[in-house]
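SAMPLE LOG
Freezer: B-3
Tube label: C17
Construct: single chain, 112 aa
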Amino acid sequence: MNRYETVFILTPVLSDEQAKEAVQEYKKFLKKNGAKIQYEKFWGLRKLAYQIKKKSTGFYHLFEYNAPGELIKKLETDFKRDERVLRFLTVKLEKHAIEYVESRKDRKEKVA
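STRUCTURE (predicted):
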């Protein structure tokens, strides 16, 4: 299994509760299809760098997970079909990126 990082932006028309509900749906989808979530972060409502579908803000969320490669195509198809999703990006993490992410998490835990 490979390690992936997915960031997606939900439309700002949703309430905080609806945005978190959408995130839970995708979390369940990942787990149901064999992914093991390593880290997730809800960044909340943020300003976009440029307008997307006449929206200037959106709810950002990050998932970092281990999953089989064929799951990514299914996940991205779901994102494309979902009207709540403005944009998404999935990146396969290489060895050095994984080490960097782990060291960054260690530093945050020591500070807290």
